[in-house]
From TrEMBL:
Pfam families: AAA_lid_14, Sigma54_activat
Species per Swiss-Prot/TrEMBL record: Paractinoplanes atraurantiacus
PROSITE patterns per UniProt: SIGMA54_INTERACT_1, SIGMA54_INTERACT_2, SIGMA54_INTERACT_4
MF term (GO), any: ATP binding
SMART domains linked: AAA
UniProt name for this protein: Sigma-54 interaction domain-containing protein
InterPro entries, sorted: AAA+_ATPase, AAA_lid_NorR, P-loop_NTPase, Sigma_54_int, Sigma_54_int_dom_ATP-bd_1, Sigma_54_int_dom_ATP-bd_2
CDD domains: AAA
Keywords from the UniProt entry: ATP-binding, Nucleotide-binding
């Protein structure tokens, strides 16, 4: 039996065929026009199927039932790009049971996401952010897979690791052990991970428990895992695979059972290509991969985040004036949420009282310069940040092209033809999507 059991589950049913509705009902799916998640039955070979999916896509998840076998080619992927969360071919009662299990899983994840703790710990309701949280909650609660969190600095990777640990369903779960791989001294790396015995090396005046041993029964979070030397990756691989290790200076094999979460802001695929990151190590740490969006990809969350940071600093936080709200939405955040939090705290510390944050509360260094519209500061900040990181003009051009394509596809609801017309480019270029960065 699945973790969700066999309880009734509600869904919006956009299903016309009585036999299909009856089979879903027998499997425990109850029709409800107000349910969060939807089941849509379509003929996947119909050219208008993707438009029907787009018309129903919303904050909940959409399961598409194809009443005919899905044609070879791009049809299934097109339905997913249009907003479907899953696409299955109808084959009678067995499919109905599968749909019911899927809906129960989605419902369980939604219940966890709606917990006050989760909503307060990782603030945001933008679609891209909710999608990441759904994946994280599902990985935490229903799998024991190693999790790799990627994303730019300041996007909240450590907080997401904490959430995954907190929601882990293992009985008698122990603590979260955090190790920043970028701060490990190479000569002491063995001691950090494996521990050591007294006298194992000069200066080892007492035995030490390493990270693997400390994490037994809990979670080991390796932050900045992309900084690990290749030789150390090889040493860690055995522990991750077998769960056994020796302390430095000991012949005794020890066991440790832990969930592994890793995080990086590096491109590990590029690292594999140039030999700085082992492919076998990568595959072991990436049972589930979560890419955290940058703040520029979730601008709808900027104001809720600022209000949350104000609330942390003040019991009764002031409201934002329209002008300050506009500035916050247009500003660039090279440091992402960490950058936004620092700005919010600088503003609230300058505030001298009253119900509203005014322009005077914004630090002078954060105000638009003479003749510079607030809307332009975001682009300026992004360019300056990229130049500081060593980007060339070609890199900047690629970044702008990717952002333009991404924005056009979002505005066109994923329709490559409309996006291509907006940008004046060939349809195949738009249909290719935005390459992963």
């Amino acid at each position: 039996m699945s973790p969700e059991g066999t309880a009734l589950v509600e869904a919006r049913l956009e299903v016309a065929a009585p036999p299909v509705r009856a089979a879903l009902r027998d499997a425990g799916v109850r029709a409800s026009p107000t349910a969060r998640n939807t089941v849509l039955a379509v003929d996947a070979s119909d050219p208008g199927a993707a438009d029907r999916v787009r018309g129903l896509a919303g904050p909940g998840r959409l399961l598409v039932l194809s009443t005919v076998p899905i044609p070879a080619g791009d049809t299934g992927w097109a339905l997913l790009r249009a907003g479907a969360s899953d696409v299955v071919v109808w084959a009678g009662a067995a499919t109905a049971e599968l749909v019911a299990r899927r809906l129960r899983r989605w419902h369980s994840v939604d219940v966890l996401l709606d917990r006050p703790y989760v909503r307060e710990f990782l603030v945001g309701d933008s679609p891209v952010w909710r999608a990441v949280l759904r994946e994280a909650v599902e990985a935490a609660r229903f799998t024991a897979a190693a999790v790799l969190i990627t994303g730019e600095s300041g996007t909240g990777k450590e907080r997401l690791a904490q959430l995954i640990h907190d929601l882990d369903a293992r009985p008698a779960k122990k603590k979260l052990v955090i190790l920043d791989c970028s701060t490990i001294v190479p000569s002491l790396s063995g001691s950090e991970f494996f521990g050591h015995e007294k006298g194992a090396f000069t200066g080892a005046s007492a035995p030490r428990t390493g990270a693997f041993e400390l994490a037994d029964g809990g979670t080991l979070f390796l932050d900045e895992v992309g900084e690990l030397p290749v030789t150390l990756q090889a040493e860690l691989l055995r522990v991750i695979q077998e769960g056994t290790f020796k302390r430095v200076g000991s012949n005794l094999w020890r066991k440790s059972s832990f969930r592994l979460i890793c995080a990086t802001n590096r491109d590990l695929a590029a690292g594999q290509a140039v030999g700085t990151f082992r492919p076998d190590f990568f595959h072991r740490i990436s049972g589930c991969t979560l890419r955290l969006p940058s703040l520029r990809e979730r601008l709808d969350d900027v104001i809720p985040l600022v209000e949350h940071f104000f609330k942390e600093a003040e019991k009764v936080p002031p409201r934002l004036s329209p002008a300050v709200r506009e500035l916050l939405l247009q500003r660039a955040y090279p440091g992402n949420v960490r950058d936004l939090r620092a700005l919010a705290l600088r503003i609230i510390h300058r505030h001298l009282g009253g119900d509203e944050i005014s322009l005077g509360d914004v630090p002078e260094a954060e105000r638009p310069g003479p003749g510079v519209p607030a809307a332009d500061t975001r682009l300026q900040g992004w360019v300056r940040d990229r130049l500081r990181r060593g980007a060339t003009l070609a890199d900047l051009t690629v970044g702008v092209e990717e952002e333009a394509l991404r924005s056009a596809l979002i505005s066109a609801d994923g329709d490559a033809g409309r996006a291509a017309r907006t940008l004046g480019i060939p349809v195949p270029r738009a249909a290719g999507g935005v390459p992963a960065r």
